Amino acid sequence: MRSAGTAIRIARTLLSTQYAYMLEYRAEIALWALSGVLPLIMLGVWQNSGAASQAGWTPEQLRHYFVAAFLVRQFSVVWLIHVFEEDVVSGKLSPFLLQPLQPLWRYFAAHLAEQGTRIPFVALMLLGLAWINPGLLWRPSLENLVLGIAAIWGAFVLRFLLQTLSSMLCFWSERAAALDRLLVIPYLFLSGLVAPLDTFPPAIKSFALATPFPAMVDFPARLLSGLPVDLAGGFLSLLIWCLILGPLCWWGWRRGVRRYGAMGA
Predict the structure, then answer these.
(1) Which of 113, 146, 179, 190 could cross-link to 208 by cystine, CB 3.0-4.6 Å?
(2) Cβ atoms 157, 242 nearer than 8 A
(3) Which domain holds residue 155?
(4) Which residue stretches of the chain have pLDDT < 70?
């Protein structure tokens, strides 16, 4: 009980500190929120094509899906590798290693704090959408809302683990962020962010479902929008990929820190 209480106090202090830090950059965070409108742009593209209707989607389902994908993207953004690379190259990671708290928890808390500061900007953007086109928004059922939020949280954790694994390359390369950008391409096209997976040819859809990317956008977006979805399969996919990436991240961290220390840090 004492260790649990200590962990709660540390988490509360860390989150409040990171939240105050993020508030100093709220103007930049507003720009980040605006940069996440790709699903809304793709909605305009798909509305003017007949591909979605050929896949059995109604215009209403298409609108709800892409607005839900917009929300999923807003609250599952991960930028760990850019900060971690700077900390490794500049030596800022060294004092973090001397503290009893695992440094990755500090970055994780910073992401959660950034999500908290993002909420008002996303709410304003949704109000703007409702004013421009009221048909874009809907009221999800309580079940879909709760499950959708849980799926978004799982998608964020999965993306964080995937980028943590990429960030471990920073111990061996000063340009690991450039290598991580290679993952952006499959993420955009296989996650359902630029096109619903139902519009893909069967072979490509099957390949996409064998990767972790659909669990990051398609699955939570379907839950939020009320579309048919394999509930158990979606959460199982999130769990399996997290269980795969978690040990790999730990292994990469142990190897990377030893190399970092051997270089005199």
Answers:
(1) 190
(2) yes
(3) 17-262
(4) 1-7, 18-35, 49-55, 261-265
Q: And the tokens for 161?
A: 């683990």
Confirm whether 4 is domain-assigned. no
Whole-number Å distance between alpha carbons of 233 and 211: 13
Q: What is the pLDDT of residues 227-259, one digit of tens each?
A: 999 999 999 999 999 999 999 999 999 999 988
How many distinct helices (H) and strands (E) make up the chain?
Answer: 14, 0
Say how far apart CA 36 and CA 156 lie, in whole Å.
Answer: 15
Contact 43, 69 (CB under 8 A): no
Block residue for tokens 């809907």 = 138
178 within domain boundaries: yes
In the block, which residue shows the tokens 């709220």?
26
Q: Are 238 and 154 in contact, with CB atoms under 8 Å apart? A: yes
- Residue 235: exposure state from Cβ atoms within 10 A (0-12, 13-18, ≥19): middle
Q: Let me know if residue 168 belongs to a domain.
A: yes
Residues with Cβ within 8 Å of residue 34, at least 6 apart in sequence: 121, 125
Q: pLDDT above 90 covers what percent of the chain?
A: 42
Specify the pTM: 0.89
In the 3-class helix/strand/coil scheme, how is 54-74 assigned residue by residue?
Answer: HCCCCHHHHHHHHHHHHHHHH
What confidence score (pLDDT) does residue 219 get? 96
Q: Say how far apart CA 8 and CA 41 lie, in whole Å.
A: 41
| Residue 171 placed within a domain | yes
